[in-house]
Structure formats: structure tokens, C-alpha cells
Amino acid sequence: MASTKEQAIANLQKARTPEAIQKRVQSTMVNRALKQEVFDELKGMLLNGKNGGTYYSEFMKKFLDIAKKDPNSKAGQMVASTIFQQEMLTMLDEQHEKEMNKDRDFQRYRLIKDFFQQQRDVILETNHQKRIIACCSRRAGKTDLASGAINYAAIIPESRIIYINLTFTNAINQIWNNTIKRADECGLQIVKSSKADGTIEFGNGSSLRIMGNPNNAEIEKLRGESKVSLIIIDEFFHQRNMQYAIDEVIGPLMADREDSTLLCIGTPPRLAKTFGEKCWNESGWKKYHWTLFDNPYMPNPKNYLADLCKNKGITEDSPFIQREYYGRMGCYDTEALVFKGRTTYSILDDNEAITDVVIGVDYGYSDYNSIISVAYNKNTKKSWVIKEDKFNKAGVSEIIEVIRRHCAYATAKCKIHHIDPEEHVKIYCDNNEQSITHDLMTKYKLPAYNCYKYDKAYAIEMLAEELRTGRMQIPENGVLDNEMEQILYKRDNDTDAIIPELDEEIGIHADAMMALLYASRKIFFDMDYNISFKETQPKASDYKTDSTGTIIEVITDNPSSGIVGTDSGIIG
Predict the structure, then answer these.
(1) Residues contacting residue 450 through CB under 8 Å, at least 6 positions apart
(2) CATH fold of 114-332, please?
(3) How confident is the model over 539-561, as pLDDT tens digits?
(4) Do the Cβ atoms of 140 and 292 come closer than 8 Å?
(5) Angstrom distance (rounded) from CA 232 to CA 146
(6) Angle at 534 between CA 528 and CA 536, to 5 degrees
(7) Mean pLDDT calculated for residue range 289-317
(8) Of 12, 278, 436, 512, which is most buried, counting CB atoms within 10 Å of its CB?
């Protein structure tokens, strides 16, 4: 009798015969055919129901009706266990999120499809890069980029967006219509808007705030904001007080969102030593650069530039064209500098004879306070800035204390040169804050007067001439030297001709220069220059003081002074 092993081998050999293989193939085909027949029959029965419906839909309806009628039935228990299992809820939530993401992705696609490559590159980085700078030429599509970035961020629900330009009027004129147009094109619903307030609210909870930056007071209004997803600073390289704005106000606003972005865009600055240029040369910023030649919507840019140069009587090599139309950093408008060629000193020669010291004060309610002391000799017609201060976030008491320190320094200077300080030290203050000046005069017994402000353009021209010739000198790399590097005259928009008027919309506010200007009028008058001058008494104080005479509170609001509230409120 054959062993079990031998029988297994025999069976295996038999299964491999052609006849056995053929039989298995036929059986498999029959089984598949039967399964298909059964499947088709079952499919037909399930899909064919009463009144054009399907059997399975009728079954499910009856099953769910039973479950609804009696939740404790087997049908009810089965439905409940299916609905309330965590996997089902998660799956439904994920499906809903996927559908929302599909809608958002489609909206974003509709939004950016008409932007050209350089614009898209920047827009797609929003909420991914913390800090972005785009340095471009004119006609390069910067404004359109800003409106695109606003809408791209707003598509994500509950996004808070802030747009800042030089002034509120500029901001509205440049961004309002285009933002609404882009929102409509991509299907982003706007439920409420106010052009007067510069606000837009979107249907998904996102919102836009539009504002200007004429002074520090406007930027301070942002301190109440939180969870901001995108801040756009337009005309970045021409904005004033940007270091303070970004470091002290804007930076903290972005701390509570990991995906927040600061987007700074603009053309290169006309002047040197701007904070914007400093940022451009630093690491830590994602940087982009392009010109009108990269803008496919700009027809014939070469012809446009050739006509522009012809009309202005300049060449493409001029700093204006290189800066404004090639977007090149460092092409400064040196011709428009007000105080070019000024004279500085590194060490003051104390042997220079002086006859008087005058102190100029510029109060900065919404900008910086500045106090400048100038020693001069009315006989030799020479003068030297001997002490300079520029500061903000100061209460009235602090401002007065700094002025008193300048007076003490001036007094010491006079004694070195054997001059009676009571006769030869004077203070001339900005008349916008006369009540402070009145306190200096009456409570602190200091020789303080209102400054003389007439013929401003002529006085600035005379001050620039004194600095250029060296008759007046300022400390090298001091407050005034750095500030004067950024004080420009305006240019005519059509002819590009220089206009003898300070361009106060760009760069820093000339607080220290104004303090020097107030002081210099007395100097030039004493030197018998052809300039008008007179001293006027300040108005009475509106302040309440403590027993020591320190100002602690404003008694009444003084519209002429611009000071409202207590000393804990800040000036500057």
C-alpha cells in the first residue's frame, strides 16, 4: 500500500496534466459567468423600484423610518452606533473641510490667474514668509499686487488685514476700487464697507483696515489690533518713522499668529539712510525686484521711457530714471537736498569766542520733540550747534526737564567765556504749544519766547547757505547731520523741476532742523542779516501743578496747543 507521501505526489502530478488544467479553466469560467449573472440580476432588482425609484432607496427609507420612530429598535441602535462613532464624525468633518478647501483654492485660482509671474510669486508667499520686501520701478504693477495680496489673504476666514500708505487719501485712492473689483472677480463676498472709514468686511469674517502714516499718532492707533494675518506697507521706502512703527507697534501685532506676514512694497528712496534701504540690505527679509519691463500689461515700455526722457530733457543714465524706472537702490536725488555741502565738526574748539547762546525748541505732539542749542559770535558771524536732542514718547514734565538741561549747559558755556547768561541766553519755542513755553517763563523763570515763523522758505535758504559756507557748523554724524541727509525739496510732477518747498511726505520729519531754524532767526538778526524777527510772549498755562511746581495735569483742553488730557498722556 502506498504511503501518504507517495499518494500526495501522485495527486500533484495528476493535477498538472493538460486534462486537469483544462477542466479547472472551464470551471472557473462557469463560476465567473454565474457570479456575473447573479450580480447583474441583483443589481437590476436593487435599481428597479416602484414609481421610478430604486429598491435599495426604498429599503433604506423604510429602515431609517423605523429607526426614527423607535430609536430603541435594532434599526435605531444600528443607525445610532453608525452616526455617533468618532470615525464617522471625523470623516464627515474632513469631507466638509475638503469641500471648503476646494472652494478656497478655486477662489484663489480665480484671483491670481490674471497676475503676472513676479506678482504671483509675492502673493503666494503671503502667510508663509514673515517679512517680504518688493522693490520695484514705477508702472510695475505694485498697486495691483497689493489688492491681490489683500484678497488672497481675505479668502481664508477670519483674516485681519491692514493696508498702510503715506496718507489716508493716498491709501483710498490707490487701493479701494481695485480691492473691491478683485474681490468681486474671485467671488469673495463683501457684506459691509465704508470708504470714509477705510474699512471692508467680507462674508467669511475677514476684514480690511486702510490707513495713512502721516505721523506717529496714526501708527499708535494700531496698538489695539490683534491676530493680524497680513500688514501691507505701500510706498515703504518713502515712509517716515518706519523703524519705530515696525519695531514698537507692527511687530508685536504679528506675534500671536505664526502665519502672519509683513509685506513692504515701493520704489527706491530719493534720499539716503532710510530705514527701508537698511531693511533691503539686511537678511531676514524675502526680497523681490522687478520693473515695468517685466509687466506684460505695460505696452511698449521702451518707447514710453524714451518719450519720458525726451520730455524731461534727461537721459536713461540719470538718477531719476535709474531709481524710478529701473528700481535701482542708491540712486539718490542729491540735487534736491536742501542742506547739501553742509559743514560739520568732530571736536568743538572751546577757544572760539562766543557772544550768545540761543536754544530752539520744536514740540512734537504727533512726531518727535527736538531741542537744539547754538553758540554764536555776532561779531565774527560764526555759530556752532553745541547740544542737540531729539526724542518722542515724552510727557510735558520730561520735555521741560530736557530744556532746563540745555539752559544749564548754555549757562556753563557762557561762564567759561565770561558772559552774563541772564543777558545772553534765550529760548525760542514752537508756538503750537504756547502753554508749555509760558510755564518755562513764569514757573521756571527761563527766558522763553514764541518763535518767529514768517518767511519760512527764505529762512531755510539762509540757514542752508550758512551751513554750506561753514559760518555755521553742526556735530558730525549728530542728530542734525543725519536728519539733513534726508531733507529734500519737492519736485514738480510734470517737469521734475525742483520746487523751493520741503517735501514733508517722504523721509523723516525735520524736527531738529525746525528747532535750529527757530534759533537761527535770532542769530541772523543779531548778525545784522536781512531777515525779519521779533519776540512774542507765550499764552497763559493750561496746566495744573503739584506743590513743587511740576506739571501734572491739563486743566482745560487748549485747541491751539493740541494737548488734551493729563501728563500721563504722551507728547511726541
Answers:
(1) 428, 429, 431, 434, 437, 535, 536, 537, 538
(2) Rossmann fold (3.40.50)
(3) 765 555 555 544 445 444 443 33
(4) yes
(5) 7
(6) 155
(7) 93
(8) 512
The SS3 assignment for 359 reads strand
The values of phi and psi at residue 83, to 5°, are -70, -45
**CA 453, 455, 459 angle in degrees (round to 5)?**
85
Longest dimension (CA), the chain: 144
- Domain coordinates in residue numbering, the chain: 114-332, 344-554
Cα–Cα distance for residue pair 562/402, rounded to 1 Å: 20
Name the residue with cell 423600484: 49
Instruction: Answer yes or no: are the C-beta atoms of 146 and 265 closer than 8 Å.
Output: yes
pLDDT of amino acid 19: 66
Cα 44–chain centre separation: 67
Asked whether 111 and 151 are in contact (CB, 8 A), the reply is yes
pLDDT 10s digits, 2-22 = 566 666 666 656 655 666 666
Which residues, 6+ apart, have CB-to-CB distance to 393 below 8 Å? 570, 572
**Rounded to whole angstroms, how far apart are CA atoms 155 and 47?**
42
Angle, alpha carbons 326-328-333 (nearest 5°)? 105
Q: Model pTM?
A: 0.70
Query: With contact defined as beta carbons under 8 Å apart, do 148 and 111 qualify?
Result: yes
Q: Which three cell numbers stand for residue 439?
A: 510755564
Contacts of 30 (CB under 8 A, 6+ apart): none
Strands (E) located in 482-540? 489-491, 498-502
> 344-554 has which fold?
Nucleotidyltransferase; domain 5 (3.30.420)
Cell numbers placing 302: 521702451
pLDDT: is 475 or 33 the higher one?
475
Rg of the chain in Å (alpha carbons): 38
Local structure of 317: helix, strand or coil: coil
